[in-house]
Amino acid sequence: SGFFISEDGYVVTNNHVVNGGSKFTVVDNNGNKFDARLIGTDPKTDLAVLKVDEKRDFTYVAFGNQEVRSGEWVVAVGNPFGLGGTVTAGIVSARGRDIGAGPYDDFLQIDAAVNKGNSGGPTFSLDGSVVGVNTAIYSPSGGNVGIAFAVPAKIAKEVTDDLIENGTVVRGWLGVQIQPVTKDIAEAMGLEKPRGAIVVEPAKDGPAASAGLKAGDVILNVSGNKIKDPKKLASVIAAFDPNESVDIIIMRDAERKTVSVKLGQLPGTPINAAFKNEQGTAGQLPALEKLGIFVEKQDGKFVIADVDPNSRAAEKGIRPGNIILGVNGEKIESMQDIQSIAVAAIKDGRKSILFQIENSHGKRFVAVPVEENNKS
């Protein structure tokens, strides 16, 4: 499905509807067929724009400016199972849904009947404004069960405007690998509650690294936008233009700092931070042994050789073969560094010790509780 958004023939649909196609035909409700060309796609939001170059004025619809609320009535229009123009009604069940479809998930959830073939069709409010683009369904059976998802009009308009103007979507890029701030990490970092996004690693020569951001910094605010979690950070940064400067408030060493960063342009391919692990045998670091972690230095790397299966470290997902890159925000140069940093944290009464870990899936921070490490 799809819909005209301009009198001169621009059509919005989903990326997955046009993906892999080389020739496109638009068929209207009256059965008229028009050749169309692909203007651009944005897989990250699953949106695409086509253009019908026909010398006529097309009937079109407009994206709404208002934000719909849960409980408001909506109408979904599309072409389910190839039956032709079909209208279904329902309400907005929820907003801000993350369904794992992409880095900028912010879907409207609706209970209007949406089935295969509805993808790319408009979701209307009762005043006739387009409030979303039908994109996905949740269905164990493959059919409608009253849970469907639409890209909100605000996002759809921004993306389609970029596609029409540039043929692609231009997004700001901070250049950081991030993860959520858990309760344990918040305590270890001196935060009053879990919020923000913790920097696992800045991209080499990226905007964040050039501005001085480093692993262990917790990003709390970007130019007045509070950062609740990594998803919020991604959407906020993407809304800025490349080369635009932003003021980022971070938590570092239990102190708040403001860093000015000149953003870059989001690369087309994400950085692959994967690393092949090495296996080893148990080493001797008394402080870490209390946590159930045994470390050995191999080829200049600090490899976790063994983990007590009944320890909190194991519970937190630390596994043999993981590489320790840092402890409590400090880089490590020797086995003794790991021992002394861990001992200092225990003496200071820290409830958790924060490890920066690398494995085959990339890098992340893990806060391992100091007390009650054995589950048995």
Please explain how this structure is put together.
By secondary structure, the protein is α+β, with helices and mostly antiparallel strands. It is 16% helix and 37% strand. The chain contains eight helices and 25 strands. The strands form five sheets. Strands 6-7-8-11-10-9 form a six-stranded antiparallel barrel. Strands 13, 14, 15, 16, 17 and 18 form a six-stranded antiparallel beta sheet that branches. A hairpin with a 2-residue loop joins β24 (352-359) and β25. It is elongated. Mean pLDDT is 86; it is low at 268-283 and 372-376.
List keywords for this structure.
376 residues, six-stranded antiparallel barrel, 8 helices, 25 strands, 16% helix, elongated, disordered C terminus
Short characterization:
Helices cover 16% and strands 37% of the residues.
N-end to C-end Cα span: 56 Å
Helix content: 10-25%
User: What is the overall pLDDT average?
Assistant: 86
User: How large is the radius of gyration?
Assistant: 25 Å
Shape: elongated
Strand order across the largest sheet: 6-7-8-11-10-9
Helix/strand-derived class? alpha+beta
State the total count of DSSP E strands. Answer: 25
Largest sheet: 6 strands, antiparallel, barrel
Number of helices: 8
Percent strand equals 35-45%
Q: Uncertain runs with pLDDT below 50, 5 residues or more?
A: 268-283, 372-376
What order do the helices and strands come in, and which of them pair?
Blueprint (H helix, E strand, L loop, with lengths): L2 E2 L5 E4 L1 H4 L5 E4 L5 E10 L4 E6 L20 E6 L7 E12 L9 E4 L11 E4 L4 E8 L10 E5 H14 L5 E2 L2 E5 L2 H7 L7 E6 L4 H5 L6 E5 L2 E2 L3 H10 L5 E8 L2 E8 L1 E2 L20 H4 L3 E6 L2 E7 L4 H4 L7 E5 L2 E2 L3 H13 L4 E8 L2 E8 L7
